[in-house]
Amino acid sequence: MTYRMPAEWTEHEGCLMAWPVRPDLWGDTLAEVKREYAAVARAIAEFEPVTMVAPPGHGDEARAHCGTGAGAGTGTGIAVVELPTDDSWFRDSAPIFVLDGDGRRAGVDFRFNAWGRKHSPWDADDRISGLLLEHLGTPAIRSGMILEGGAITVDGEGTLITTEQCLLHPNRNPEMTRQEIEAELKARLGVTTIVWLPYGGALDTETDGHVDGVCAFVAPGKVVVQLPADPGHPDYVRMRANRAVLEHSTDAQGRPFEIVDLPQAAFVEVDGREVEVGYLNFYLANGGVVVPVADHPEDAAALAVLAAAYPDRKVVGVRARVIAYGGGGIHCITQQIPAATQTTATPSTATQTTATPSAAARA
To answer: Could you give the count of Cα atoms lying within 13 Å of 179 in the half-sphere of its Cβ?
Structure first.
């Protein structure tokens, strides 16, 4: 069977999130970030069901914060399940879902090494993708390549955009060439054209420059790009270099890109440290766009840009200052489950072939 990753704007069965519990990451902000995660979950649950995964023993706390509403499977609402996790960034550690030509769903289980071994332990997060697929009754397609979902954006029609800063970083897949990385992305996600942007965010030292901080597909042939208006912003020149690449590129269907600029930037202080809340790190829900905001003067203008880009969706801002302090945004803490149109079948042996020898070491 041939699988492809659908665009994020296609219909979702629901959304996956993970409950934050890691004290060495959040420190004194842990209580506040739990409130932010719960607010994000409730906002998304207005559009589609949310499954919140909590480490064993933390399920009741997550339920108390989030409320469970109607519960998964009955429309909107939040369901809490307990599975072992290390961290709470499901865009990167949860499976990447794909559909075959008949609409049957599978999940690609890429390797995960905590963004180049930045946090320890990460073994539970490396396993969580497989556990989630088992929990959901979804067949797994295993890959030996390390890949985080925040490192890619796709149009569902054969085009994938990523950054050289992240995917070619030696702390991910040092044994793989650029060509081998491209081949694995094409094989697992069903893409035919890969556009490499040179830069992720200069301040994004946590993920080494994920694309979901700089560029996102709005529709086939249309992208929104972070383009800071302030010449003093550390990404002022870098993001214009990214934009120039897009201006001279075409997608898998041969279309030039229509580009929407998102010039707003919001810097706020959290626990004595200045952080940037990235408006581009939003989640597309069924009929909605859930956007991180900062209680900052730039919030309204950024929401207006995204409302114009997504005129058929309700744009909702949710405070995500502490999530930004931890190194990400709303897109980083969510993973969509695309709706399947047929009962999922087990992938063939060929589609389960791993990419690299390192797959043999999977825990």
So the answer is: 0
* C-beta separation of 191 from 5 below 8 A: yes
Q: Which positions are annotated as active-site residues?
A: 332
| Amino acid 257: pLDDT | 98
Q: For residues 85 and 20, is the Cβ–Cβ distance under 8 A?
A: no
Burial 308-339 (b: 16+ CB within 10 A, else e): ebbeebebbbbbbbbbbbbbbbbbbbbbbbbb
Select the more confidently predicted residue: 341 or 71.
Answer: 341
pTM of the model: 0.93
Choose which CATH entry (3.40.190.170, 3.75.10.10, 3.10.20.30, 3.40.1190.20) describes domain 3-356.
3.75.10.10
**Cis before residue 121, ω within 30 degrees of 0?**
yes
pLDDT given for residue 295 in this prediction: 97
Q: Within a 13 Å sphere around the CA of 12, how many CA atoms are in the beta-carbon half?
A: 26
User: Domain map of the chain by residue range?
Assistant: 3-356
For the stretch 103-138, what's the b/e string if a residue is b when 16 or more beta carbons lie within 10 angstroms of its beta carbon?
A: ebbbbbbbbbbbbeeebeebebbbbbbbbbbeebeb
The residue-averaged pLDDT of 165-177 equals 98
